[in-house]
């Protein structure tokens, strides 16, 4: 007959068995066989790594690609406990990724995840199609935060300098010009306040400042000056220089007829030669006034003036000035004054008669 001690021992054994955990586990070969059967029956969709020793689900691949594109490539974890810890830390990792920017080459993502590139490309394209703030360009995946940071930095650089060349931006951000245009320049907002001209981005404030400088320069010139020298002083390319010049002309602030006044001020000047010609010159009206006064005073004192002097002053047919115009300048306010035009000299009619009489007398 069993004693009370035997009963207590049996109770203890039963409790120990009930509290103990089963040690039965599937072997690696059994796991491989189970997963293979599931794949064959299309019950699961997994992606094998390039070495064939591991596999990941499509959902996990999408998660990895999303986080990798935000500049922090995470490593694939195989055990279930590590996967659980990884999932719990996803939000913290994502926030850290956003703080680091959002740019990652697809090849780097594939290398980090140890999967073929075509799997990463398909998953990245799905992220783009979902319209959750990702874009693919030039074989790289960009997060919306990265593009936003580029736009913010571009605004800052333009505010500091007034202009930026595309080559300097490409070097600064390590981007090709094609990638810079497709990623940033083609998607600038309407309130950007900038103008893309060739290889340079200008702010409207900078262009207006250059236009004001051109106005001041043209107003202060007192002698003919090649347009190339004016353009160099203003610091604008040819197209933008003529844009500023034409803007002033439309506002009646340059290229006015002599003795014509604007509503507020008088800024005369004219161009000689073609705009595309290296000899294109800006001649201020002040220069014409000074030349006119000099020629009139010289002719009044001597009653003659050599055509060589007129040519140096730009008053000859080779420079577009007709003889009749020279005669009007010499007459000035004395409309009754008669002049005699010879090949090398222009002299007053009385002086010409005196010279003629002296020659006949001899």
From TrEMBL:
GO MF entry, a single one: UFM1 ligase activity
GO biological process terms held by the UniProt record: protein K69-linked ufmylation; regulation of proteasomal ubiquitin-dependent protein catabolic process; response to endoplasmic reticulum stress
One Pfam assignment: E3_UFM1_ligase
GO cellular component terms given for this protein: endoplasmic reticulum membrane
Domain E3 UFM1-protein ligase 1-like N-terminal: residue ranges: 6-66, 92-318
PANTHER family with a match to the protein in the record: E3 UFM1-PROTEIN LIGASE 1
Function per UniProt: E3 UFM1-protein ligase that mediates ufmylation of target proteins.
Protein name (record): E3 UFM1-protein ligase 1 homolog
């Amino acid at each position: 007959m069993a004693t009370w001690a035997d009963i207590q021992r049996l109770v203890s054994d039963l409790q120990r068995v009930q509290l103990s955990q089963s040690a039965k586990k599937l072997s690696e070969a059994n796991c491989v066989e189970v997963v293979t059967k599931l794949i064959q029956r299309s019950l699961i969709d997994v992606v094998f790594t390039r070495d064939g020793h591991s596999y990941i689900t499509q959902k996990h691949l999408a998660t990895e690609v999303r986080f990798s594109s935000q500049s922090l490539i995470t490593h694939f974890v195989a055990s279930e406990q590590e996967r659980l810890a990884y999932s719990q830390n996803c939000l913290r990792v994502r926030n850290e990724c956003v703080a680091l920017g959002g740019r990652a080459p697809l090849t780097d993502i594939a290398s980090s995840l140890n999967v073929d590139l075509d799997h990463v490309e398909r998953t990245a394209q799905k992220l783009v199609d979902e319209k959750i703030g990702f874009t693919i360009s030039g074989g790289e995946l960009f997060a919306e935060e990265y593009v936003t940071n580029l736009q913010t930095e571009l605004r800052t650089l333009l505010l500091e300098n007034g202009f930026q060349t595309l080559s300097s931006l490409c070097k600064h951000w390590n981007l090709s010009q094609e990638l810079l245009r497709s990623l940033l320049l083609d998607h600038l907002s309407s309130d950007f306040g900038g103008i893309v001209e060739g290889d340079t981005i200008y702010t409207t404030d900078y262009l207006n400042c250059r236009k004001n400088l051109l106005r001041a320069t043209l107003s202060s010139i007192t002698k003919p000056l090649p347009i190339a020298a004016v353009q160099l002083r203003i610091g604008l390319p040819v197209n933008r220089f003529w844009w500023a010049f034409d803007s002033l002309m439309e506002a009646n602030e340059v290229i006015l007829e002599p003795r014509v006044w604007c509503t507020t001020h008088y800024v005369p000047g004219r161009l000689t030669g073609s705009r595309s010609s290296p000899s294109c010159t800006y001649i201020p009206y002040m220069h014409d006034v000074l030349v006119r006064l000099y020629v009139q005073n010289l002719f009044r004192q001597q009653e003659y003036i050599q055509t060589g002097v007129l040519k140096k002053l730009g008053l000859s047919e080779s420079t577009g000035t007709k003889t009749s115009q020279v005669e009007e300048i010499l007459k000035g306010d004395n409309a009754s004054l008669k002049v005699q035009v010879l090949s090398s000299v222009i002299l007053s009619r009385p002086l010409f008669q005196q010279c003629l009489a002296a020659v006949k007398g001899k």
